Structure formats: C-alpha cells, structure tokens
UniProtKB/TrEMBL annotation:
<feature type="transmembrane region" description="Helical">
    <location>
        <begin position="46"/>
        <end position="67"/>
    </location>
</feature>
<dbReference type="GO" id="GO:0022857">
    <property type="term" value="F:transmembrane transporter activity"/>
</dbReference>
<feature type="transmembrane region" description="Helical">
    <location>
        <begin position="174"/>
        <end position="193"/>
    </location>
</feature>
<feature type="transmembrane region" description="Helical">
    <location>
        <begin position="279"/>
        <end position="295"/>
    </location>
</feature>
<dbReference type="Pfam" id="PF07690">
    <property type="entry name" value="MFS_1"/>
</dbReference>
<feature type="transmembrane region" description="Helical">
    <location>
        <begin position="336"/>
        <end position="359"/>
    </location>
</feature>
<dbReference type="InterPro" id="IPR020846">
    <property type="entry name" value="MFS_dom"/>
</dbReference>
<feature type="transmembrane region" description="Helical">
    <location>
        <begin position="365"/>
        <end position="386"/>
    </location>
</feature>
<feature type="transmembrane region" description="Helical">
    <location>
        <begin position="79"/>
        <end position="99"/>
    </location>
</feature>
<feature type="transmembrane region" description="Helical">
    <location>
        <begin position="250"/>
        <end position="272"/>
    </location>
</feature>
<protein>
    <submittedName>
        <fullName>MFS family permease</fullName>
    </submittedName>
</protein>
<feature type="domain" description="Major facilitator superfamily (MFS) profile">
    <location>
        <begin position="213"/>
        <end position="412"/>
    </location>
</feature>
<keyword id="KW-1133">Transmembrane helix</keyword>
<dbReference type="GO" id="GO:0005886">
    <property type="term" value="C:plasma membrane"/>
</dbReference>
<feature type="region of interest" description="Disordered">
    <location>
        <begin position="393"/>
        <end position="412"/>
    </location>
</feature>
<dbReference type="InterPro" id="IPR011701">
    <property type="entry name" value="MFS"/>
</dbReference>
<feature type="transmembrane region" description="Helical">
    <location>
        <begin position="214"/>
        <end position="238"/>
    </location>
</feature>
Length: 412
C-alpha cells in the first residue's frame, strides 16, 4: 500500500472502524440485486423483483437522511443499533415471505423496512473527518473510502448472485443481512473514534439540505445517479442481445474497477486549487465519457469504454465529500453526506426505469442515450449552481490551503 494510505492508519482505532465500515456497507451492493435474483428464481416474476428492489432504494433514500440527522444529534451507537435491528427484522420477514409464498404486499412492507438501513459509508467518513479535519490526510482518507465503495460494487453483486444461484435463492440477501449486522455492531462498539454528537438544543434546528451548496450537490448527483442506474440496466440488456448475458457482471465490474484505480491514484495527489473547480471538471468528464457508449458494437469495446468512464467517478465523489464539509455545519456533516447518497439513490431509480422503457421501445444500443442525456443534465445543473458552490457557509471549509486561496482571491 502506498505510504500516504499507510500513514492514515497510524491513528488509533482507524483500522478497526475502516474494516467494520467495509463489512457494513457490503449490503449496499448486495441487497438489491440479491432480492432481484431471489424473487426471479422463486417466482419467475421479474417485474415484481424489480419493483421490490426499487422499493428498498427509495425507502433508503427517504429514511437515510433522517437516520443520519439523528446520528448527528445523538451519536452513532444510540441510533445505528436500533435502526439496524429494524432493517434486519424486515430482512428476515422478506426472506420468510418469499420462501413461503406470502402475499405480495408483505414483501413490499418488508422492503420498506429494509430501507431503514443506515448509511455506513457516511458514518465511516464522519470518523475520518473527526480524526483529520483541516489536514491533507482527510483527502487521502476520502479517497480510500471511495476505493472501498468500488470494491463493494466489484465483488458484492458477484457474491450475492453467485450464492443465490449456486446455493439457495435466499442466500444472497441473507449474507447481506449478516454483513450489515456484523459491520454496524462492530463499528458502534468502537466508542473512542465515534464523532461527538451535537444535540439540537445546542445547534438549532433545520435540515442540512437548507444549505444552497448542498442543494446543488444533491441535484447534480440525482442526474449522476441516473447515469449509474441506466448504465447497469442497459449493459445487462446489451450483453443479452450479444448472447452473453452472464458477461454483464464482468463488464460492470470493469466499470467499478476504473473508478477504483482512479480513486487510488487521486488519493496520492494534493491539489492547490479550490475544490469546486475540480468537482465541476469531474462532472463534465463523467458526462463526456458517456458519449463513446453510443458507439459500442461489441462487449470488449464496451468494457474498455466503461473502464475509461469509471476513471472520473471516484475523483468526483471524493471532491464532493470535501465540498460537503464547506457547505454543511460540522454538527450536520453525517446528514449532509447522506443527502448526496440519497440523491444518487433517487437518480439510480429514475435512470434504471427510463432506461428500461427505452430498451423495450428501441433496443439496448438506444438505451445508452439515457446516461448520455443524464450526463448533460448533470453538467447543466453543475454550471447553474457553480456560484453557490463558490460561497461556502461562514466558518466552514476544507483544507487550510483552500481557505488561504479564498482569502487571497477575496483581497484581490
């Protein structure tokens, strides 16, 4: 491991909470696809399977920021454990209902409950921020966490689908629930690195989403999420048209691999410029990288194009986390990070739905027009909101170098 990453773990407790966070966020990439695989195998109803997966995503999008707001006020241990128990109970209900062929409405109720799963990635990033706020190490820490996200999306779906098809249909979601339980309870057992809560009476009320800068980030990442959701669905359809549907998981893993590689390299670099400029360049790069997908003619070319497209994802996400610190009060940092994840989740649901409609109407190749259009929308929102991102909230910000540059620019 390169020395900047090794230096991160000099802080006591950092190895343990990072490992717990990796386990705890594995369900993010395993549960939805696991439910689709399970339901399709047990019932053969792909429509129902997709609707249940979308229900989990939308429920998580609604519940996630509220859970994170409570975490900011009361602490991770007091909030995450009850929320996780509720999600685990709902997962158990889903497995039983699917196995014993209970009515569909029971499945949907269970999926709503599963959506109460906490945003473990935001919890781990909040711990890194508490350790390294205002130092260059925080950039490296966010880069490392972005790499961990991509590792989850490389291996999570493969594990979930593989278990459900090779062992028994419920195996994928069951293992995802086990990862969640172990990860969250291990993480919350580590009190020494838990960020200090900020009770409402000391900081005032209101959601972190009241921040104009955060609104821009969330709106942009709704469009970005549509890119991800559409690419997933269209790639599966394209692989099926090519007669190699199973290869879709490998091609999508290459997409995540590109982001993983970029995240590792990005974490080794340190930049003198302001973060919002790098963020806008990253959004533009993601949009431009969708154009070659309109020209794909075979799976090898698609894999290469998606690897290149993936190179812009992690750097943009890392820079986004830095910007959140500039536009959200410290007492609402976890909530702010979760709102961006919520925007992504909503975008994924919209993108996958629109892409499916386009595929049914015009075929898989036409479906790649959906991520291309979504990228253009992301760029438009980014440019329209750029002025808001240039005005961080008073008393907040990222690195010392960024503060100095802003002050020099203001004096000039």
């Amino acid at each position: 491991m390169p020395s900047p990453y090794r230096a991160l773990f000099a802080a006591p407790g950092s190895r343990a909470f990072s490992a717990a966070g990796l386990l705890g966020r594995m369900p993010l990439s395993m549960m939805g696809i696991g439910v689709v695989t399970m339901i399709s195998q047990l019932t053969g109803r792909y429509g129902l399977a997709g609707a249940l997966s979308a229900t989990i995503a939308l429920s998580a999008a609604l519940a996630g920021p509220q859970i994170s707001r409570l975490v900011d006020q009361h602490g991770q241990r007091r909030v995450l454990r009850p929320a996780t128990l509720l999600s685990l109970a709902a997962a158990a209900l889903l497995l039983l209902a699917a196995h014993y062929d209970w009515p569909d409405w029971v499945l949907f109720v269970a999926c709503v409950g599963i959506g109460c799963v906490p945003s473990v990635g935001a919890m781990v990033r909040a711990r890194w921020a508490a350790l390294y706020r205002g130092t260059p190490q925080l950039h490296t820490a966010y880069s490392f966490e972005s790499v961990m996200d991509e590792i989850c999306f490389i291996f999570g779906p493969i594990i979930s689908i593989g278990l459900s098809t090779a062992w028994f249909p419920e195996a994928g979601p069951l293992l995802a629930a086990c990862f969640l339980a172990v990860g969250v309870f291990w993480l919350t057992a580590q009190r020494a690195t838990e960020p200090v809560p900020h009770p409402r009476e000391h900081k005032g009320g209101g959601s972190a989403l009241r921040s104009a800068g955060l609104q821009v980030l969330v709106a942009t990442f709704v469009a970005t999420g549509a890119i991800f959701g559409a690419v997933d669905v269209v790639t599966v359809a394209f692989a099926e048209e090519e007669g190699h549907k199973a290869a879709a998981s490998v091609v999508l893993a290459v997409y995540a691999l590109g982001s993983c590689v970029a995240g590792v390299v990005f974490g080794l670099l340190h930049f003198a410029g302001v973060a919002e400029r790098r963020w806008l360049l990253g959004v533009c790069a993601m949009a431009v990288s969708m154009i070659p997908l309109l020209l794909v003619g075979n799976l090898p070319f698609l894999a290469v194009a998606l690897f290149v497209a993936g190179l812009s994802i992690a750097p943009t996400m890392i820079t986004t986390m830095s910007l959140i610190e500039e536009h959200v009060p410290r007492a609402q940092l976890t909530e702010g990070m979760t709102w961006v994840s919520t925007g992504l989740a909503v975008g994924v649901a919209v993108g996958s739905s629109v892409a499916g409609w386009v595929i049914d109407a015009a075929g898989a190749r036409a479906g790649y027009g959906v991520p291309a259009v979504s990228g253009a929308v992301a760029v438009a929102v980014g440019f329209l909101g750029y002025r808001r991102l240039k005005r961080p909230a008073p008393g907040r910000g990222g690195s010392v170098g960024q503060h100095d540059e802003r002050e020099e620019r203001h004096l000039a």
